[in-house]
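Re: that chain you flagged

S.,

Sorry for the slow reply, it's been a week of failed gels. I finally had a moment to sit down with the sequence you sent. For the record, here it is as I used it:
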Amino acid sequence: MVYIFLLVIIAINLYLLYRALEGTEVYKKINDLLFGKKVDKNKSVGEDENSETADDYIKKYEEYLGLQNSDEALLVAESGFKKFPDKYILFENYIDCLVKQTNTSEDISKRKEIVNSCYDAIKNYSVNLKAKDFDIITPYIEKIKKLEYKVKLFEESSKEGKLKELKNINEDALLKLAQIQKNIESSEDENVISSLMDNASDNENKLSIELLDKHQKEKYNELKNNFEELANKKGQIIRLKKYKDYNEKAINSLKKLLDIFSENEKKYSDKESEFPMILKKYIGNINSNYLNPETLTYMNFVYGYIFENVDDDSKYIITKIMNDTEKDII
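Prediction finished late last night. Pasting the structure tokens below so you have them in one place:
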């Protein structure tokens, strides 16, 4: 038992000595003898001989550049720099890619985001610099400041371009509204007027009211007031035309009914005749609310004449039919 205990004590002391020598040449030689491979103290946990190096990222980056695959080149440059933030060439490649992306992107927010990424890259790279080496990043700081200024100018010019575009849309919409107004004034077709009014509404929705200048605001208010007056005027004209057409149709129906009854008065006076249904066909659906005084007088005459010349049972049937028949709605 004493020998076993001593062996255990010796084994523990040897292991502690082995761990204490970790990273030294002696440790490497012992490790080689025990495991048949070298250990690099600079490698990350889990990293083996097949781990990628900075040179691997540089080669892949140059390969993508040669193929003009700018998006892939940026991804490799970013990945390589984040893995080896102290490597100058990876830092340089990453910054160059970001600058190119800024110059080609049409999205303002994307350009600003890229500029911020440039500043972050400079910050991350500078963490690994010694005080005497800080001058190396000065050109990049100046470069990104100029880039930031260019992005600001691009944003301002884009705003000016958008503003100009909106003003042109305003002017075009006002011109179209004026033309639509003229077309409405010259038309009496309900369907045409309705379509034109919808078109006017669509053009009004295109306006950026807040961008109208004084002259344009005056023009817009004038057009708006004219459209309201025109809508009321045309609406009244259309209603009157509808009523006129309806009254014309009613007069013709009444005349036709009177002629039919007069030609066969004796036949149609009896309750067994088919006349109540003929009456329903010609005047049953006439809505007196739409009749002008003249037409209403004529209807009362025709209806009164027929009513007086049929028997009592027919009077009941005719009255019921006139009450039960659904009236027109226009």
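What I noticed first: Residues 33-50 have pLDDT under 50 and may be disordered.

Talk soon,
D.
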